[in-house]
Amino acid sequence: MRIGIDLGGTKIEGIALTDGGEIAERRRVTTPRDYRGSVEAVGDLVDAIEGAVSTRCSVGVGIPGALTPEGLVKNANSTWLIGNPLGRDLEGRLSRPVRLMNDANCFAVSEAADGAGAGADVVFGVILGTGVGGGIVVKGQCLAGANSIAGEWGHNPLPWMSPDEYPGSACYCGKRGCIETFLSGPAFERDFAEQTGVAMASRAIVVAAAQGESGARQALARYHDRLARALAGLINVLDPDVVVLGGGMSNLPLLSESVTALLPRYVFSNSVRTRVVPNVHGDASGVRGAAWLWPRDRADVIDKQ
Fold first, then answer.
1. Contact predicate 6/27, CB 8 Å
2. Is residue 301 part of a domain?
3. Is 179 a domain residue?
4. How far apart are CA 300 and CA 305, in angstroms?
5. What's the pLDDT score for residue 119?
6. 256 and 277 in contact (C-beta within 8 Å)?
7. Most buried of the four, 138, 199, 208, 254, by CB within 10 Å?
8. Are 215 and 223 contacting, i.e. CB atoms less than 8 angstroms apart?
9. Do both 188 and 83 map to the same domain?
10. Does residue 218 share a domain with residue 167?
């Protein structure tokens, strides 16, 4: 049995996952907004889960950022983690090896292992939420990259911008026109407000579109086209078997079908075999992927007592 932890900015979720992929225990706690408190909260959560399942487990942790070569957290929305040796401190707290991975990579690992990308050689997992990220899994192995940023397609520019899109909005990364500034949830709402003069939440825009409201329908159509362009740039480079959509915006109705229909306009091929599909495990994908960071053979996981 293996434990997966999703260390989010507001909550920490933990599960115990069996070799067959069943969740044997699941718990959540509020995330302390300080570094030492976060380390202790993860440790306490692991202790509680192990107590519930009565066995010592491997531990994988998904984090909202990446690690430097020195093992320090970088690029984290939970800024109190930045610059700290989270992996080493968790290993000290739990007295065993701990594997850390970017939370978008964990999503991709989960969906490639036993989700929408199961059985595919190359899977790209897409996060469309407050931000836009992604992860790459090849033959069951997640690619981190030399700079620990593999899959960060959200900070490339949106391809084939129209004159009214160029140069795009400013992004927190310091650039303009990043895919994230077009495809995140806040970006979708901002686009609708700019075009209609009305501020509405994403869900309300979807409801309005279903009721035939013109501005909402046009906002959805722009989102579909922009996502198709962004994915086409990705497909032209990586050529994955499957693209799995995740994050809150992946719940837009008919999103995968609409984007699939648009891809042939942009992909550099006379046919597009890449499947664009919704995820299987929903909000649990990240924490499941963290658990799957350890292989079935855990002998080296329990050698520290």
1. no
2. no
3. yes
4. 11
5. 96
6. yes
7. 208
8. no
9. no
10. yes
CA 37 to CA 16: how far, in whole Å?
22
* Residue entry with tokens 């939440």: 201
**How is residue 293 written in tokens?**
């960071």
- For residue 52, give the amino acid letter: A
Check which CATH number belongs to the domain holding 60 and give it.
Answer: 3.30.420.40
Gap between the Cα atoms of 159 and 153, Å rounded: 11
Give the domain extent around 63: 2-106+285-291
Whole-angstrom Cα distance, residue 17 to residue 23?
5
- The number of folded domains in the chain is 2
Query: What single string gives the DSSP state of each residue in the chain?
Result: -EEEEEE-SSEEEEEEE-TTS-EEEEEEEEPPSSHHHHHHHHHHHHHHHHHHHTS--EEEEEESSEE-TTS-EES-SSGGGTTS-HHHHHHHHHTS--EEEEHHHHHHHHHHHHSTTTT-SEEEEEEESSSEEEEEEETTEE---TTS-TT-GGGSBPSS--TTTTT--B-TTS-BSBTHHHHSHHHHHHHHHHHHS----HHHHHHHHHTT-HHHHHHHHHHHHHHHHHHHHHHHHH--SEEEEESGGGGSTTHHHHHHHHGGGTSSSSS---EEEE-SSGGGHHHHHHHTTS-S--TTTSS--
pLDDT in tens, 223-233: 999 999 999 99
For residue 158, give Cα distances in angstroms to 145, 186, 205.
Answer: 22, 16, 23
Return the pLDDT at 216. 98
Q: What is the pLDDT of residue 297?
A: 54
CB-count exposure of residue 254 (10 Å: 0-12, 13-18, 19+):
exposed
Q: Provide the pLDDT for residue 227.
A: 98
The reported pLDDT for the residue numbered 262 is 98
pLDDT given at position 250? 95
Whole-prediction pTM value?
0.85
Of 44, 78, 49, give the one whose Cα is nearest residue 62: 78
* 235 lies in some domain: yes
